[in-house]
Amino acid sequence: MTYPSDLEIANAANKKSIDEIANSLDINSENLIRFGDDKAKLSSNLINSLSKKDDGKLILVTAISPTPAGEGKTTTSVGLVDGLCKIGKKAMICLREPSLGPCFGMKGGAAGGGYAQVIPMTDINLHFTGDFHAIGAAHNLLSALIDNHIHWENKLNIDPRRITWKRVVDMNDRSLRDITCGLGGTGNGIPRQSGYDITVASEIMAIFCLASDIDDLQKRIGNIVIGYTRSNEPVRAKELNADGAITALLKDAFQPNLVQTLENNPAFMHGGPFANIAHGCNSVVSTKTALKLADYVVTEAGFGADLGAEKFFDIKCRKSGLKPDAVVLVATTKALKMHGGVKKDELGSEDVDAVLKGCENLGKHIENIGKFGVPVVVAINDYVSDTQNEHEQIINFCKNLGVQCKISSHWEKGGEGATDLAEEVARIADSNSSDFKTLYENEMSLWDKTEYIAKNVYGASEIIADKKVRNQFKKLEDDGFGSYPICMAKTQYSFSTDPLLMGAPSGHDVPIKEVRLSAGAEFIVVVCGEIMTMPGLPRVPAAEAIGLDEHKEIKGLF
Predict the structure, then answer these.
(1) CA gap 61, 425 in Å, rounded
(2) What are the two backbone dihedrals, phi and then psi, of residue 161, each rounded to the nearest 5 degrees?
(3) Which of 149, 201, 343, 460 could anchor a disulfide with 454, C-beta 3.0 to 4.6 Å?
(4) Could you please report the per-residue DSSP string of 510-536?
(5) Is the model's pTM score more than 0.70?
(6) Closest to 378 measured CA to CA, from 406, 339, 414
(7) Which tens digits make up the pLDDT trace of 141-168?
(8) Counting Cβ atoms within 10 Å, is residue 246 exposed (0-12), middle (13-18) or buried (19+)?
(9) How far is CA 150 from its chain centroid?
(10) CA 383 → CA 272, 279, 331, 394, 415, distances in Å?
(11) How many other C-beta atoms can be found within 10 angstroms of the C-beta atom of residue 1?
(12) Domains assigned to the chain
């Protein structure tokens, strides 16, 4: 059977006006800042007025370790919300906004797929409401203020060799990874080495998604450490008087974006930090607002549960006070077969033994989620090539662990294909059986926190680092950052730091390459291996297929 493309499905959608979507959440039209007929931001007045309302149930969607075969967290998240609404629940979804870089590169968009999408798909993937442009401008304003301060007398004694703040652009551009700026004479600033990151890797983005309100946003921006003095003392953004202007640039962007699913159910899409050097979750303000507006709120975290869910729990929930009621762990038979040793071009054939072997990865993620005290449901994101024998193998594996597993065909059937999953998720969320707790205490040393994650989540035997890195840990504690949580930056493809080591490896070492401070976001990034903060385009970028058709409508976007 031939299925239409995601874009064709999205273009054929029967959209409701954004006023109708808002009305389903009891939001009056005067509290909307409209961007056309199908998307809007919520006013800060509305958000403030909801503070005394009770919270709904919070459901996290995460996944097994990613593979080239795909898992479909966003598609499952959208399908689950449509399924919950299909069974009569008042539900909505909270997602990250897509970056332009992956849209024009290789990965594609981030609005779901098939018949489980958020719309308007083209707008969401291209510019949307301009939030990322605002974040990029805010970040680069700070960059300009740093260089300007050094140019005019440098009263803070900033060491140009110790500036850690780069510039950003929301595009994959490998040529900008390492640059020399300030060339061309005395009027052009001080020559120094620097570089660009992609906008989603900006600490401003992480702060934007962790701030509880606009005042907290400005405080965190002021606390950003942009570099160090010649005596190796940290320099903060507020010492450059940068926090006020940056917050002003972000004032409108900070208000959550309201859109809808293909089945006209409400969706917030707001913020989009990297899932590696940051926490990979949508904004706290949109999640908390959604909990006041709906009885069930579905959100997701980037990459597999060892990175995304762990950071959702240990960073986002720790900092915001959010308490999840249930977790949905997404897997596919194809991905499990890859974890079981099957090559990508051989995934179309039934292989029950490989599925069972790949379930080692699934089982480790189930075990890890249990350490946070939150009940879990496994969702098999159904492919038309799956077989009943493969499904039964996964269901039996989960049953032996005391975990429910539901087959969900939302990609093909929309919410109707996710009703079984929705019924189980609602049942668990309503049972009040969650006893959420973070993995470690704030008072542990930074080294011990890192080791605890590596041993308890990754199955490692130890962490290893040279004297320089150990000294970085000590200096961060001496500078007053020892209570911060750890944000692990490692490959998403394995529990280890080797992306080719699939399944559920154990007893490996986790080597630490460097430690980075995110003082405004209030976490410590521990880098294990090579981490790319400015991706490059593939040999044949997706951009080459994108354009306008004879009706001047966008084509080629997935």
Answers:
(1) 11
(2) -80, -15
(3) 460
(4) EE--EEEEETTTTEEEEE-S---SS--
(5) yes
(6) 406
(7) 999 999 999 999 999 999 999 999 999 9
(8) buried
(9) 35
(10) 28, 29, 11, 14, 16
(11) 4
(12) 6-129+253-430 (3.40.50.300), 131-250 (3.30.1510.10), 446-527 (3.10.410.10)
